[in-house]
Amino acid sequence: MMQFVKTFYRDYSLKKKLIIVYTTFTLFIVLLVGISTYNLSIRRLENNEKAFITNKLDSTVFLLDSILDSYVIKSDSIFSNILIQRALTRNYEKKNVLHVLDAYQNEIYKTIDPIMDDVIERKYSNNSYVLLNSKVKIYTMNSTFPIDGGIVREYNKIANEEWVKSTEKENGRIKWRGLFLDQGKEFISVNRVHKDFKSLKPIGILSILIPKSKIIDLISLSDNEKLMDIYLFDDEDNFISSRNNNINLEDAQVLLPRIKDKDIGDSIIDFGGEKYIVVNNVSRVTGWHMIGIYPYRQITQSMSSIKDATLFILIIAIVSSILITIVMSNVITKRLSKIMKKMAIIKEDRYEKIDPIEGKDEIGQLDNMFNSLIKEINNHVETEMTLQTESSRLKLELLQANINPHIIYNTLATIRWKAKEIGAKDIDNVVEQLTGFFKYHLNKGMVIATIKQELDLIKCYIQIYKFTYNMDFEENIEIENEVLDYYTLHLIIQPIVENALVHGLRPRKKKGKLSIKVSNDSNDIIFVIEDNGTGMTQEKVLEVLTNAYESSLSGYGLKNVADRIKLYFGTQYGLGIDTQVDIGTRVTVTIPILSKEEHIGKIGDLI
């Protein structure tokens, strides 16, 4: 594999590389985007279906709770009615039939009938009414109350049943009973212990029966599409009601513990070799579980059109990308071939004139750079020939420069001897300083010097200047001993001192002061030259730094000093000027600490 990569990288033509690489890359991107889009669409559709199913089940539970709440309200109304309380707690041992009939008709039936009016079946006969399929049952503990077998029943007959015991444990609170048979029909019921309001003792069990058919009708009403199976289980996981199309009741009872263990609103479960979206909700009123089961294949069927569209778009995108890659590779390599032909021609004759390749893209820029390079090469060859001639001339001048200083030194020595001969000590002293100045100034043709040599030159220059212009000023030179042997560029301090004397102290009428300090700051050497002369305006400072303002004697301006420092050491080094009119000027020069070899290396790089 690595051998193929090396061969592909080194030996294949650029056109083949572009086609292979871009086609592979484009295929990868297109497939990645297509598959990601398809998966995202499935997840979004799946989430939408989950939300739809969950909302539908929530609506069903809400509707169920609303209906069951109405039965709870009916139970509260019967439970709290004074007439029914009076009828159930009265002693009927000494009462005749009329009293019993009055209790039934005017206290029990007449009270319960309006409460249960919307759910009770009744018919009238002989100017009275008879209740059919009564949905209200009161199991009385009053042994003297005559039992009619309709609403009022005997408590002792049901006292040992489990639903009665669980109801009695609630102590008057509502207790729901799961699915049971009554007279051949299936019901659920809302139950509670009926109490005497005066003694707070139980007087019976109040039970309101709700037919299973009502629950089934409610579930059917909430899901007209009938795509989702809905199951209702009581708090002991006993089946109550269902409307199923996809899986049977036994399978739903197996799924219920798994759904409850997940304790989530919705999930996807594999069951019987198929996937189902299962949603779970709990009735607020009864605490019973209602689950909805929706076949996942419905989502897959909905995705068939999206799948076909995605596949079609992928094919179009792949074919288009391959065609575009081939066309672009031809366009790019065609212009590169022109450059290669031009190079072959220039190789034979670099002065051959060839028309440039049009365009401002990278290939056009490459051609422009190649044309410029050829032009620069031709210019360089011509310049090199000129430089060789110039180099010979410079070598001759350097030889002359090495001879001329001897004439100067001999002449100055003669003047000094004559001055001593006639007793002119001041002339003798200034000639001595001038000799030292020229010695240091010429520096044997070197462009670098030690800081000690630079300061000796400055001292000579100050004494010469005092003598020449008959000036009286105070000079102070402070230097850290460890920097004396460090190297610097030759003649970078003297022009600054000259500027301080000529333009700062000389125009001043009072006695002046000149201070020179040299110190070591980490990896740098700091020169500070300060005078209390006339100072400069900011405009003058700008002129000095930008217009190569030159001192009157040496012709070597401060701008030249700054330029030399930046040229040799970089733009982070240089000089700074802090000045005020009639106060004075402070010039700070910063250079790096370099060895002699490092200095010479930098000079060699520049030359």
Automatic annotation (TrEMBL):
Name of the protein in its database record: Histidine kinase/HSP90-like ATPase domain-containing protein
One Gene Ontology term of the molecular function aspect: phosphorelay sensor kinase activity
Keywords recorded for this protein, A-Z: Membrane, Transmembrane, Transmembrane helix
Domain Histidine kinase/HSP90-like ATPase: 484-595
Organism for this UniProt entry: Lachnoclostridium phytofermentans
Record flagged with keyword Kinase: no
InterPro entries listed in its UniProt record: Bact_2-comp_sensor_kinase, HATPase_C_sf, HATPase_dom, Sig_transdc_His_kin_internal
One GO cellular component term: membrane
Pfam families per record: HATPase_c, His_kinase
SMART domains: HATPase_c
Membrane-spanning parts: 20-40, 311-333
